[in-house]
Amino acid sequence: MVKSLQVRLFLGGMVFAVWVCNMPAPPISQFSRYLALSSSLLLASLTACTNHGESVVNPDDKSDSGWIGADTFEVNTVIRAQAQQEAWGEWSELATDEKLQADLVDNQLKFIKNAAEAQRWRFNQLAGEVNVINVVADGDLVTIEYEATVDMLGRFHGDLPELADIAPLEFTALVPLAPGSFDYDEIEACSEADDGHSAAAYNFHYYFAPDKEGCNIGLAEAKVEITEVFNRPTVYPEYDKLMQDLGSGNIGFSAALVPNRGDDDPKSRFNVHKNMLENELGLQGVTSDDGSYWRYIWKQGDVQLTVDLYDPTEASWDFDSDFRARLGEYSLIHYNGHSSYGTKHLLDEPESFTDQYQVVMVHSCQSYAYYTRQVFRAKATQEDPSGFALADIVATGKSSYPSGSPPTVRVLLGSLMRSMVSIQEGSSNDAKSWIEIAEDMKSSTWGDIMYGVAGARTNSWQPEQL
Hints:
Elements: E1 7-8, H1 14-21, H2 30-38, H3 40-45, E2 68-69, E3 72-86, H4 98-109, H5 113-118, E4 122-123, E5 129-138, E6 141-155, E7 170-176, H6 184-189, E8 219-229, H7 239-242, E9 244-247, E10 250-259, H8 268-280, E11 285-287, E12 293-300, E13 303-310, H9 319-327, E14 332-336, E15 358-363, H10 367-379, E16 391-396, H11 405-424, H12 434-444, E17 451-454
Parallel strand pairs: 10-13, 10-14, 14-15, 15-16
Antiparallel strand pairs: 1-5, 2-17, 3-6, 3-8, 4-6, 5-6, 7-8, 9-10, 11-12, 12-13, 16-17
Helix pairs in contact: 1-4, 8-11, 11-12
């Protein structure tokens, strides 16, 4: 892809807000939808407002997620497709507003999920880079032609595969041609829910079934091409940034464990994490003055971890807001709860984060696809447009379970503690790498969760060579 045509998306959680909060657009005839998709000659003759490939955002963004997994690897894909939307309501400036064009593209990309999983890939629902090739306006109907780069996770056995080992390198996915808004009948006709769930606007992409009999929405064909297999180097947490001067000769950092309310017992997630800290790590906690959290001090030699376990039953009515407040206070932040199909307002507010290196662990279903890129967009700076330098995100590639959260965060905390002690004692070669930590997480629990760490592939800290 030509570098000058790449664009960086500053979408975060606003993508969902734009989609759901829109008033439904007036209906578009099936004829006009398919005609706009299939007839390039007609498009060329329409009154057009064209970007001619101009970048709508910084072109230096990373197309991948910097993933290091226990048994998974990351590939880069290029998506080529068209999307369209009636320029009404919130979309009224779509023909000229680059941010709205980017929102529309991201809304469509998430519908590739099921087609990618049929090919045994786990698809990131947020794009890394987008090139808007052409924007055409025919009255109120705006059609966008684009290319986007999106990363996916695959599983490997033995050696990491090379690009030549992967087949097929290309596949297609049917996606909604107009992904900006849907009415109830369209969602009902074009979805297949399971396990007692039901499809709605916020999770339509998860249950999308375009081949279902009676599904009559306009469709576009997205072409997916795998272009690169990213390497899997031995990299480490940025231990030098975690080993902060705490005064009195101590070094270390503070961590916040912020479990959400349980499904049946509101305090269940809190209780299992409390048991882990006290019964497995042998720590003793004290409650804060306001009762909102328990504080545990873990000290080994000069290394100290302060672990605050927050009680969701003591939080305000807005859990997401309470969680975001923790992002501005701690070097490690852990979430356990539902992903809500990627719609939770946890990590999409840049001003909530510190301007320092942070480890964010999101133990929820498919958090790789839903939330890793939100953190990178929030942590990106002019010097580091990727956001990788200031964040490592421990995430899951597939559905996870509440019972897996305490053992995996125990592995994370224990690995960081032992590694910092080793470094402090002059044995930095004993420090745990991210691959080792991810493998230990996988071994600590059950299920096919695909544990790994995003943003880690370019980490700079390395142990002293013997």
